Amino acid sequence: MKNKNLTDVGLFHKLDGSKAGFISHSDFNKNIDDVLKLAPSIKDQFFSRLDNRKLGMVDMDTFMKLFKEFTNREVVVKNNWEVENKMFDDLKKYIRDNMHLSDNEVFMGMDFDYDGNISLEDFKRFVLEKLKFSENDINKFKLERVLQQISLTKDTNLTMFDIKE
């Protein structure tokens, strides 16, 4: 927030896109990227933490109280890309080691539910079974970050076109 010259109150007003005096879930998801880029699942977790009354909105008093608690805690996720970079490297190696396979065969090997789309669950299974990562080394956030880097549309699903590229 210091880099963006925002106070806690300024952040609240930035997130309150509709200027209604409260932050809705959709306003939060839309406006948080102006302050900090977060993966969709992290946005949801952050908003859920702020929305302690489970109303789908957060007023300024609640925001101020909970945001101060949140900022005083230790960093929850170490953001160094170490595991994600290893996933990228291992994926490249997997593709090089399987050059005899067509793009379609590589795609089908990753699309475990055969729905024509490599979802987060498909990718997780691929990383665990084929790339031999431990369940302890990965989490939804790390998998989403890798998928968003591979995906041409920067979402968390891969298509055949993403694999070809």
Give start-end ranges of low-pLDDT stretches.
Answer: 72-77
Specify the CATH homologous superfamily of the largest domain.
Answer: EF-hand
Q: Kindly report the CATH topology of the largest domain.
A: Recoverin, domain 1
Strand content: under 5%
Which of globular, elongated, flat, extended, rod-shaped describes the shape? elongated
What is the H-and-E element order?
HEHHEHHHHHH
The overall pLDDT, averaged over residues, is 83
The level-1 CATH class of the largest domain: Mainly Alpha
Q: Report strand order across the widest sheet.
A: 1-2
User: Roughly how many Å is the radius of gyration?
Assistant: 19 Å
Helical content stands at 40-55%
Assign the CATH architecture of the largest domain.
Orthogonal Bundle
Structural class: mainly alpha
Describe the largest sheet.
2 strands, antiparallel
* Helix segment tally: 9
What would your notes on this structure say?
The chain is mostly helical and 165 residues long. It folds into 2 domains: 8-72, EF-hand (Recoverin, domain 1), CATH 1.10.238; 82-164, Recoverin, domain 1. It is 54% helix and 4% strand. The chain contains 9 helices and 2 strands. The chain has a two-stranded antiparallel ribbon with strand order 1-2. Helix 5 packs across helix 8 (140-150). The longest helix has 16 residues, at 82-97. The chain starts with 7 loop residues before the first helix and ends with a helix. Mean pLDDT is 83; it is low at 72-77.
